[in-house]
Write a structure and sequence with these properties.
There is one protein chain. This protein is of the alpha/beta class. It has three domains: 3-151, no CATH class; 168-390, Rossmann fold, CATH 3.40.50; 396-563, no CATH class. The chain has helices at residues 3-6, 53-62, 70-86, 89-95, 115-118, 182-193, 205-213, 224-233, 274-281, 318-324, 339-353, 359-373, 379-382, 393-423, 426-442, 450-478, 492-498, 500-517, 525-541, 548-563, and strands at residues 11-19, 35-39, 45-47, 105-112, 146-151, 168-172, 216-219, 238-242, 245-248, 255-261, 269-272, 297-301, 329-333, 383-387. Strands 7-6-8-12-13-14 form a six-stranded mixed beta sheet, sandwiched between helices. It has a five-stranded mixed beta sheet with strand order 3-2-1-4-5. Helix 9 (274-281) packs across helix 10 (318-324). The longest helix has 31 residues, at 393-423. The protein is globular. The two termini are 33 Å apart.
Length: 571
């Protein structure tokens, strides 16, 4: 990742809210029903759906891989959904309103409370006439990239702090003869947490379990009680559930739930609907002050976790119910999700979310990759995301990215030290140093913390150079082949010629310290002091000439720190 990739992507919000009188439930779709469409600051408009309820249910069944003409069914419903959205005149205007500004990415927030509208597969819609990417899938077109999410109207207070640390609960269930790809999902989550896992002895199972358990807890053959008890013990920030979707109830009471293992009947399923699952996830952790705690993110890899079922009785889809209960980000599926697609969902989302990337960008990327990787499926259209994010999300994510990357950077150097000190093997060290480079590339430079992050990068680059020197010394002592040697007390140019990799890392460290020293973070004197003293020290080690003005400025900053009673960094 280069500096451009470290910069946040500006996101412009477009809000589309659809309303009708009456309670959310007990209403069937009909062309006669008027819905009031409110799009950002545009005048309200009345829209109608073009089909009866039974017709939509028939079309949705065709999207469940139950018909031989599935491509035709997809094309038909996509066109119809695009036409519905195209009837909201203000929406097309808003989506085209980029005008060459610096905010090309759009977050299309679809606010719907009516249960029958939640049945509609909005994510599959084609771009209507006058929309960007006309004729292409709206969620995938590249003219004006966007992320379409759903949310309930006026949701209850949601978690306002985006998590800096990550603690994941992975619960999977496959009662009876069913199977789920739990090993592939576990591997995806294990890879996602890897940058923050403490080094451990691979031959010590207890040490391994402790290191991984700080970030990931696994519930195999999960029951609902297992999930409730786990959430009561631990404040999980993310919950990933892998289970099959099952129908429960009959006729008008037909709903979709997740098939967990029964607490009372071995091998039998307990089909859990959204309200029961929400009650288990939103618990009272025993160690906290008594206030409810809920995860920031819940991902459900299943068939039809976003499917509404009946609209006659209160309640929505499982994802809808979890979101309504106060969970800010819930990702599920409204059509059957392929095994491979479910694994990719876990890989893509957790890889990006744990680094502190914007979930809307992660969702957009998820849909695009599912479309590219699995063209024989419509997994990309199956993904449903219910989202209610903090208003200051951009500021929070900048802090999260900073903390997560610095934490990964610190641990990556521990892995490099262990690889050198324990084994001394070149292949282990090379892998560890790749971890360091990856973490370095992830460190953002956010306003007010430039000096701090640059100093941390400089410190790790300097340590990297030291590790290379230690490797060189180890090769010399053990008699391994060394292409070059340097005599004790040799001048810096000799070091540069004999060990260019070490010298290059010290040069990079010097540049990071120099930039920190020259930083405009006027209130961050401690870290500017740190950068200045290290800049002068490394300049001396590398034989670089230092301007008198830089020397005098560093001395002045040191004197200021003395006056403040702060820690002195000697030159």
């Amino acid at each position: 990742m280069n500096d451009m990739e470290n910069r946040p992507t500006p996101i412009r919000e477009v809000v589309l809210e659809l309303l009708r009188p009456g309670p959310p439930h007990n209403q069937l779709l009909s062309p006669l029903t008027p819905y009031l469409a409110l799009c950002s600051s545009h005048s309200a408009e009345v829209v109608h759906v073009p089909f009866e309820h039974w017709e939509l249910q028939r079309r949705l069944q065709e999207l469940g891989y139950r018909t031989s003409d599935r491509p035709g069914a997809i094309q038909e419903i996509a066109k119809t959904m695009g036409e519905i959205m195209g009837r909201v005149g203000g929406l097309g205007t808003e989506l085209q309103a980029n005008g060459g500004d610096a905010q090309p990415f759009v977050h299309l927030r679809l606010i719907i409370s009516a249960s029958e509208l939640a049945l509609l597969p909005w994510e599959i819609a084609s771009a209507a006439k006058g929309f960007p990417g006309e004729g292409s899938p709206l969620s995938l077109q590249t003219v004006a990239p966007l992320c379409l999410t759903r949310e309930v109207r006026r949701p209850p207070g949601t978690q306002q702090r985006w998590p800096t640390d990550a603690r994941i609960l992975f619960a999977y269930a496959a009662p009876g003869d069913s199977e789920v790809p739990f090993e592939a999902h576990l591997y995806a989550l294990r890879r996602a947490i890897d940058p923050w896992v403490e080094p451990y002895d691979t031959n010590d199972s207890k040490q391994r379990q402790k290191a991984l358990g700080e970030h990931l807890e696994v519930l195999p053959n999960a029951t609902l009680r297992d999930i409730q008890e786990a959430c009561a013990r631990t404040r999980f920030t993310h919950v990933h559930i892998l289970a099959h979707g099952r129908e429960t109830g009959e006729g008008e009471r037909r709903r979709y739930g997740l098939a967990f293992h029964s607490q009372t009947s071995a091998g039998q399923p307990d089909v859990v609907e959204g309200e029961r699952l929400a009650a288990a996830l939103i618990s009272q952790p025993k160690e906290n002050d008594g206030s409810p705690w809920h995860p920031a993110v819940v991902t459900v890899a299943s068939c039809e976790s976003g499917n509404q079922g009946s609209v006659v009785y209160p309640g929505g889809s499982l994802a809808h119910d979890l979101h309504r209960a106060g969970i800010p980000l819930v990702v599920g599926s409204q059509f059957p999700l392929s095994f491979a697609g479910s694994v990719s969902m876990a890989e893509i989302l957790y890889e990006r979310l744990l680094w502190g990337e914007d979930p809307r960008l992660a969702l957009r990327d998820l849909r695009a990759q599912l479309r590219a990787l699995y063209p024989a499926t419509h997994d990309w259209a199956s993904i449903v995301a219910y989202v209610a994010l903090p208003r200051d999300l951009a500021r929070q994510l900048a802090e999260v990215q900073c903390e997560r990357s610095l934490g990964a950077l610190r641990l990556s150097m521990k892995h490099a030290d262990d690889a050198l000190n324990i084994s001394g093997r070149q292949d282990n060290l090379a892998i560890a140093l790749k971890r360091v480079q990856r973490a370095l590339n992830r460190v953002p430079e956010i306003p007010g913390r430039e000096a701090e992050t640059l100093c941390h990068k400089g410190a790790r680059l300097k340590r990297w150079g030291q590790v290379i020197f230690q490797r060189w010394e180890l090769e010399r002592v053990t008699g391994n082949s060394i292409s070059r040697s340097v005599a004790p007390g040799a001048n810096p140019s000799a070091v540069e010629k004999s060990r260019p990799e070490e010298y290059a890392k010290l040069e990079e460290a010097l540049e990071s310290y120099r930039r920190a020293f020259k930083s405009t973070s006027a209130q961050d004197w401690k870290n500017i002091h740190w950068g200045g003293t290290q800049f002068l020290s490394l300049s001396a080690v590398l034989g670089k000439r230092v301007d008198a003005a830089d020397w005098n400025l560093c001395v002045a900053i040191c004197e200021r720190e003395v006056g403040d009673g702060s820690r002195i960094r000697s030159v």
